[in-house]
Amino acid sequence: MNKQTQFHIWYWIAAFFGILMLQYVFVTAQQVAEVPYSDFERYLKEGRIAEVAVSDNYLQGTLKEALPGGQTQFIATRVEPDFAEKLDQYGVRFAGRIESTFLRDILSWIIPAVFFIGIWMFILQRMGAGAGGGLMQIGKSKAKVYVEADTGVDFSDVAGVDEAKDELKEIVDFLRDPDGYGRLGGRMPKGVLLVGPPGTGKTLLAKAVAGEAKVPFFSISGSEFVEMFVGVGAARVRDLFEQARARAPAIIFIDELDAVGRARGIGPFAGGHDEKEQTLNQLLVELDGFDSSSGLVLLAATNRPEILDPALLRAGRFDRQVLVDRPDKKGRIQILEVHLKKAKLGVDVDPEQIAALTPGFTGADLANLVNEATLLATRRGADAVTMEDFNNAVERIVAGLEKRNRLLNPREREIVAYHEMGHALVASLLPGSDPVHKISIIPRGVGALGYTIQRPTEDRFLMTLEELQNKMAVLLGGRAAEWVVYDHLSTGAADDLARVTDIARAIVTRYGMTEKLGHVALDRDRQSFLQQGEAAYGQPQHDYSDETADAIDGEIRRIIDEAFNHAVRLLKAHRELLEKTARALLAKETLDAADLKNLMGESA
Ligand code: ADP
Ligand code: ZN
């Protein structure tokens, strides 16, 4: 509820009271004379009264001729008859008196009424804040679409996400000149999905795109679509696109897309939540309804792309995804430099040192850190923010983040570094493996504590047994490294093991590559993991004997053990290299192909 409405309501309440007062004064001071009861009795005896109406407390009547004041109407308050007689005997002039009921009226109903109006307003207000709209907002959905003609943000405000920026530059070019862009028949993506954990700068990036292209920025949050009334969300989507189309070229940004875009039929509202479904359908309709030459580009952000409805990700919709990941150390230095510009710093403040203290921090965490350090310095009464303030602020924030379980402790980071280096080294040392593209110990997604990306140099359609074995050795390289360095096994390798087991099973049962079982296809066309569950209800999967099943298990075991031992042998032989590269990875957090080549080259 806004100020305007509030003002209106108070205005009505004041007017209401005003009328009430006027009426009170009027009734009493009209052409009605208030006469003492004794006078009434006298008039009665004198026969001057034409008619009279009797109520519990009052007598109200008309006189045959007017009183000296000109009134013919009169009112008298009754007095108990016995008592009146007595007073009359002694010729006393007397009148009844009734307490004013004005105060009682207020207490008995006006105050409760005001009270209830108050409660009602409070509830409306709460609904407005909570549900992103509420009762008062129905049909006024325009109020919830945020429009910024100029976001005032450009790419220089977003640091440490260079890859994402590169991908979005194309969209900036397009928005600057939509017609020129389509001249050669090039087609822009309509929708780009920014994927990454909260606080990594997705909103900031979207704003920067609008700022760079100097186009208006329309934004709305997916969670605001989750309304209490069916149809409101869909109306809002329609509204949003209508407004944006009128001002194209423009950017539409939908934050938290997963709140509306959740796959239909998943989650606690499975099958029943019409509202979300309608909203999602409307969104799809709008997406299909505009072509990119209209100059609209839809950006959306999510940190859970895996739960999105597949319909959203189809070609012609959000068919491009841009990863916005947590920054590595270099990225953190750049982000700190952006935010440190606004603070007054002591000479000892070193962004690199701060970045070293903050592995796992997102851009938002770093912005928060700078703010916190500034506050600490202000509270101290100092005139510049010192390194000490930053150290204290880091401690505070880390404590908060650890509760949310997002940061690894130093020992875990070390283990993850050796694990990932294990994958990378085995891949580099085995001939014919896909080259390592990137190694990182920055947690990604749910469960992955680090990652190693290999990129094939060419498309592959055939693989030999040896190549499959090498691939398994690479996958087991992480666990092998932990085994070599720490002599332990950890849960960090669960995903690797699942993939290795799949490969090993395929070698035995699909590709017929073992001597023991021969060139026999035992499992034809293995179904995907999901379909397998369904199939379990129907036909039996296998048509071989239990002995064969035992033999398959034995062969799988043998193949995996061999691959693991191979990886262990390799890493033991290159133990020094493993140490050196893992240390480098710990320090830099991400290594690319060139870094790895340098490190390996030196020791070779
Ligand atoms: P998201 O949308 O990914 O949750 P935001 O874009 O809302 O994250 O980021 C919140 C704030 O954190 C930003 O306003 C900015 O101050 C800071 N921030 C986040 N990422 C960056 C970055 N890459 N560079 C600079 N500042 C950042
Ligand atoms: Zn691994």
From TrEMBL:
Coiled coil: none annotated. Its EC number is 3.4.24.-. Homohexamer. Residues 188-328 form the AAA+ ATPase domain. Keywords: ATP-binding, Cell membrane, Hydrolase, Membrane, Metal-binding, Metalloprotease, Nucleotide-binding, Protease, Transmembrane, Transmembrane helix, Zinc. GO terms for cellular component: plasma membrane. PROSITE patterns: AAA. The active site is at E420. Its cofactor is Zn(2+). In the central section; belongs to the AAA ATPase family. The gene is ftsH. This is ATP-dependent zinc metalloprotease FtsH. InterPro entries: AAA+_ATPase (IPR003593), AAA_lid_3 (IPR041569), ATPase_AAA_core (IPR003959), ATPase_AAA_CS (IPR003960), FtsH (IPR005936), P-loop_NTPase (IPR027417), Pept_M41_FtsH_extracell (IPR011546), Peptidase_M41 (IPR000642). One of its GO terms (molecular function) is ATP binding. GO terms for biological process: protein catabolic process; proteolysis. Acts as a processive, ATP-dependent zinc metallopeptidase for both cytoplasmic and membrane proteins. Plays a role in the quality control of integral membrane proteins. Binds 1 zinc ion per subunit. It is a multi-pass membrane protein. The chain crosses the membrane at residues 9-27, 106-124. HAMAP family: FtsH (MF_01458). It is found in: Cell membrane; Membrane. Pfam families: AAA, AAA_lid_3, FtsH_ext, Peptidase_M41. CDD domains: RecA-like_FtsH (cd19501). ATP binds at G196, P197, P198, G199, T200, G201, K202, T203. Zn(2+) binds at H419, H423, D496.
